Amino acid sequence: MRAADLAAPFPTVRRDTPAIEAARLLAGQDLPGLIVLDGNGYPATVLAGTQVLRMAIPQYCQDDPTLARVIDEQAADLFLRELGDRTVAQALPEHGRGLAVVAADATVLEIAALMARTGNPLVAVIDKHKQLLGAVTLDALLDRLLLE
Amino acid sequence: MRAADLAAPFPTVRRDTPAIEAARLLAGQDLPGLIVLDGNGYPATVLAGTQVLRMAIPQYCQDDPTLARVIDEQAADLFLRELGDRTVAQALPEHGRGLAVVAADATVLEIAALMARTGNPLVAVIDKHKQLLGAVTLDALLDRLLLE
């Protein structure tokens, strides 16, 4: 089994997509993450869902989540407003743990090793022209290996 | 909105649950992760789905996923057999990025900050006796904040 056999269509966003729109896409379709395309339609990066969420969170709370306790409940309920006019580009991690992208002929072990290393349950599959073929999610991978 | 308002029932495993059974639970119910209870029924840890997967992956592939390429396709298809007789306890990360557990009165911002920091789309909610009340998934959190 190769990545091309597992790759399924997956929604994409662009670097200039508003972050709030990306969050709505994630929520509305229960996606494990998002594939971000660059201007040429190539997968520029693959964001795990928690990385999209991170955009909305004040830096001091990211460093120490217990500090979020100083924000009262009413204000906390509205924290996603912090996304404001920010774009997906501003959510991109500065220091990635490796780009979650594989070639069409990658084996299931290569895909799994990449998910384990990046902590990202979503991997983009590209063809030889670096165009997006589709995505493999952790769910899809495990389903194929364990349930069929 | 507090953690107790968001907490929903969630399957749990124990430290001595076979890892392969944990993987089947993840796959069968499309879970974002697993809550591991200790002998007293307290959440001992919360594993992201990719951490469960990591158990099955040879160490050299974890360090460098491209090395997985040396394994041929037929052998790669069977990599989950590496789980063998291992238990969930053997999958527990040695150096966690913070335990994904919150108290019942945690705000949505506290939950979100914890997800962002740990990279884990699953948070366990405990009561004052440290018993599991339920879980909040990233999907559930975003649904409540964005779609209702």
Descriptive account of the structure:
Chains A, B: InterPro entries: CBS_dom, CBS_dom_sf. Chains A, B: It comes from Dactylosporangium sucinum. Chains A, B: Pfam families: CBS (PF00571). Chains A, B: This is Histidine kinase. Chains A, B: GO terms for molecular function: kinase activity. The structure is a homodimer. Chain A is of the alpha/beta class. Chain A has one domain (about 5-145): CBS-domain (Roll), CATH 3.10.580.10. Chain A contains seven helices and six strands; from the N terminus they run αβαββαααβαββα. Chain A has helices at about 5, 20-30, 50-55, 60-65, 75, 110-120, 140-145, and strands at about 10-15, 35, 45-50, 100-105, 120-125, 130-135. A three-stranded mixed beta sheet of chain A has the order 1-2-3. In chain A, strand 1, helix 2 and strand 2 form a beta-alpha-beta unit. Chain A is globular and about 50 Å long. The mean pLDDT of chain A is about 85. At the A-B interface, helix 2, helix 3, helix 5, helix 6 and helix 7 of A face helix 2, helix 3, helix 4, helix 5 and helix 6 of B.
